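[#protein-structures] MJ: dropping serine-type D-Ala-D-Ala carboxypeptidase here for a structure pass
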Amino acid sequence: MRVRKWIAGFLVIILLSGSFGGRACGEEAAPEELKNLYARSAVLLDADSGRVLFGKEENVPRPMASTTKIMTCILALENADEEEIVGISDDAASQPQVRLGVRKDENYYLKDLLYSLMLESHNDSAVAIAEHVAGSVEAFAEMMNRKALDLGCKDTHFVTPNGLDARDEKGVHSTTARDLAVIMKYCIRGSEKKERFLEITRTRSYTFSDVDGKRQFSCSNHNAFLDMMEGALSGKTGFTGDAGYCYVGALESEGRTFVVALLACGWPNNKGYKWSDTRKLMSYGMENYHYRTLRTGLSDTYIEVKDGIPENGRVNEKAYVEISVPEEEWQALLKDTEEIKEYSEWKESLDAPVKKGEKVGSIRYFLGDTVIKSVEVKTCKSVYERTFKWCLAQVGKCFTLFAD
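AK: finished. structure tokens for serine-type D-Ala-D-Ala carboxypeptidase:
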């Protein structure tokens, strides 16, 4: 396969920062407004492409406290019916604060415990949900870890469903800012239960009782971000002694969806640091990243077909087939200083026979060193093989014409 030259003039070949799925800004290259973040680990993620728009130690594993519960919630929604009845075990009832206060042998509807989990961050509700869905906390943690790997989160290790500081034989309960943002991206965009996840996490207050109606409970949403910025979609707070204050949240603005994840964002008495960092990162995303419309397409390009029948049917001429890429508009979320470069490659020649629609190469679009889009180059028609039988037939035609 012959590599074609960079296509000049189609798109400008400059990249001043970032790459899809990689680090957009190192701390030393951080924009002025993001140089003084409180969080030890922070990420701003494009929820459409999964691209890291800004990162600060975004791949360093750290404890994540109750931000864990976004994974607990989405797995429960995907693997159980909300109307199922959850029985309370002694282990669930004995979980430390923050807790709903469930008691051993009580019964609750799963949907009610999900509101308790996400609005008030109750640790006992998390264990009750995990035991109901998977049979045990350990089995549920295995589900969480499998899901994390499926999502591409290779630096995440779940031990508990509630995020309390813990470790097992495989390591500490921890994640990275990048992985946590990817999990939130899945919860609000990728999961078949995304609408329900958003509905639960956006609810401001919720009341319920146990199945027998003997005890009443009220929950209020502690995600202050919902009232902090226009377009706020969802989020989850967290705190433990090891993790410090943590947060993961999402915002939608002008067709763009941003996810922010923060780990180790201060310790008491600095509860407000996470809101300051979240606002800075979200504002940076909205002010600097906008969708740009780009186009693909390739036409009036031909490659030789060896031993193929030429279109005019002449024995002494070479055969060619047109290759093409359909014209298509697509969008990429970019800063003003970022541009896409286009790189094409296809085979120099083909051996007959050739089928219509046969893939012969590709055109790839790069942001930095990362491919953000790839389109196939295909043949526009079939070309049959020039066989000995066909050549004899053509010679026969010539003699017939000469005789006439």
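MJ: nice. Residues 90 and 159 are 19 Å apart (CA to CA).
AK: one more thing. The chain has two domains: 2-14+291-403, 31-288.
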